[in-house]
Amino acid sequence: MSDPAEIKARLDAPPARSLAVAESLTAGQVQARIGAISGASTFFRGGITAYTLEQKARHLGVDRAAAAACDCVSETVARQMARGVCGLFDATIGLATTGYAEPNPELGIAEPFAWWAVAERAGDGTWIECSGRTACPGQSRPAVQAAVADAVLTALLAHLRG
Question: What pTM value is reported for the model?
């Protein structure tokens, strides 16, 4: 994981920011890593694991039609999840992950991959966002989940560094 002490220091530094996490593919691993940081209660508001389209739409405000068109796996869905979790937990920064932890031949998914996003609500109500795709060819389900958790936390730290 990215340096946990630096994540905490940067989130706690003025202006203090708060963090929430929306997960699908990583199934709580990002929340667990954030929760393992000593003093995380100063910035971590909470998180949600939402696997289905219904839950992503209900709790995170993901657009149903857009999500249905891509089986909930796209850059757009990841960004919507990151913004949505900010609203759900009244946080300034949201992280999100969505993807395929294993191949899915029925959907034409040959190798595991995921989209992740970081979204920060600026003071003027606009969003500062970054997102990316992590490919995990040949990796096991747990390895994919760990790689994607690493990727989004690395992106969070890069975002915090400015």
Answer: 0.96
